[in-house]
Amino acid sequence: MTKTVVITGVAGFLGSYLAKTLLNTNGIFIIGLDNLSTGNMENLQEIIHNSNFKFLKADVSSSDILQLVSLLSADEIYHLASPASPKFYQSTPLDTIDVNISGTKNMLELAKRTNAKIVYTSTSEAYGDPEVHPQHETYRGNVNTWGPRACYDESKRMGEVLCYLYHSLYNVSVKVARIFNTYSAGLRNDDGRVISNFVTQALNGKDITVYGDGLQTRSFCYVTDTIAGLMLMMEKDAANGEIINIGNPIEYTIIDVAYLAKDLTKSSSLISFHPLPQDDPKQRRPSIEKAKKILGWEPRISLEKGLQLTIDAYKKKLNL
Transmembrane region positions (predicted)? Predict the structure, then answer.
């Protein structure tokens, strides 16, 4: 029997990778939704003509989405729609709020109507600039509601509240993934996030731009590991009603990542320092004990290996 899987934000970085991965599984039909505000149809070139994939240009923030008859067959929903890079969510803050609140409510309502399981992709940004390190799921965060990142951080947190309500009031099988920095060559070159910036700049011989002193830390998870975590969350009933960190617990300073990108690309780029953006977190590292226990999941790809894979693919993109 064929299972129908709905993926919102399907033309984005994670959504397109998830769709391609799921289509390698027999008995799955995917309905992919995207309004293409930050998603790119190029990401779907490999699968757009696959008979088990249907693309719909649609805005999940609109209540009209619930009128689409094809969605009423949904067995599973991955709600990934939302700008994720500060560059993009700060340029459209009200739309970002809309997709993470109205869009999330619509997808939860769809799950309620069709009795579908749903994975909501929240974010490590829910922890804000954390005062607890590493961040575990019970930590409530240190988020500024009055700043340029708040449109994303706080709307994702509100999305989690909606997930809690639909689970507790209507028994919807919802699982919340707090995703930590995911990367691969699938990130747009102009995405503005650390890995895409550093690799693109290094390959082009431009200055590698580090914000602040570069001593702030991040944990980077290669896309195959993140996708495996999301799929396990969908599969495991033990994840129902749970918030689970999906990220790599190995922590790097930004300056170390800049030098690693420079070394692996054999680049002559200089490293330049720029003012730190407002509310930029000083530390970010997940506790993944819950993911290990409930999902049997932990990342497998090291930063050095993942960076090399990313560099090799970017070279092809840039004809280097």
Answer: none
Q: Are residues 103 and 26 in the same domain?
A: yes
Distance CA 119, CA 194 (A): 26
* pLDDT value at residue 84: 80
* Total count of domains within the chain: 2
Beta-bridge partner residues of 4: 29
Are 74 and 116 spatial neighbours (Cβ–Cβ below 8 Å)?
Answer: yes
d(CA 314, CA 90): 26
* Distance of alpha carbon 87 from alpha carbon 299, whole angstroms: 27
- Indicate the burial class of 23 (C-beta count within 10 angstroms; 0-12, 13-18, 19 or more): middle
In angstroms, what CA-CA distances link 54 with 49, 93, 234, 250, 261? 8, 29, 21, 38, 37
Active site residue 152: yes
The one catalytic residue in 78, 127, 152, 166 is 152
pLDDT at 299: 97
Range of the domain at 165: 3-183+221-249+286-295
At 26 the pLDDT is 86
CATH number at residue 230: 3.40.50.720
| Segments of the chain with pLDDT less than 50 | none
Domain identity same for 116 and 199: no
Contact by Cβ (8 Å): 221, 180: yes
Q: Is the domain of 200 the same as that of 139?
A: no
Same domain, 106 and 242: yes
- Predicted TM-score (pTM) of the model is 0.93
With contact defined as beta carbons under 8 Å apart, do 2 and 29 qualify?
yes
Residue 316 pLDDT? 83
pLDDT digits (tens, 9 = 90+) for 211-233: 889 999 899 999 999 999 999 99
Nearest-angstrom CA–CA distance, 285 and 269? 28
Q: Are residues 89 and 210 in the same domain?
A: no
Strands 217-218 and 252-253: antiparallel
pLDDT digits (tens, 9 = 90+) for 72-120: 999 999 999 998 878 888 889 999 999 999 999 999 999 999 999 999 9
